[in-house]
Amino acid sequence: MTTLELPKAxxxxxxxxxxxxxxxxxxxxxxxxxxxxxxxxxxxFNDAMRHEFEFFSTMAxxxxxxxxxxxxLGGPQTPASxxxxxxxxxxxxxxxxxxxxxxxxxLSDDLRERIWCEI
Length: 119
What we know:
The chain is mainly α and 119 residues long. The protein contains 2 helices and no strands. The model has no long low-confidence stretch (mean pLDDT 79).
């Protein structure tokens, strides 16, 4: 009876380089994409925080003007000068709020555009 001889495979010669390449390449491709998306998200978050700080700066300035008017540091206050001061502060705050809303609405478009540019 004839027996088929199978080639003897050497199980002791395990190549770690092939395993490392097999594991490392897909891992780097996914990690690179995740890192890019994280960077994009952080840039958008940075923009949002910068816009909020601009708004807080405007709020602080407006409250300072309001305090200045309320305490009468610019001289004696008349009802007309108080009304003028309130209107000026309200106008500044309205303008800052509208600017803030406009910039916030642009953030989602910027984020979408940045993601598509990376893809």
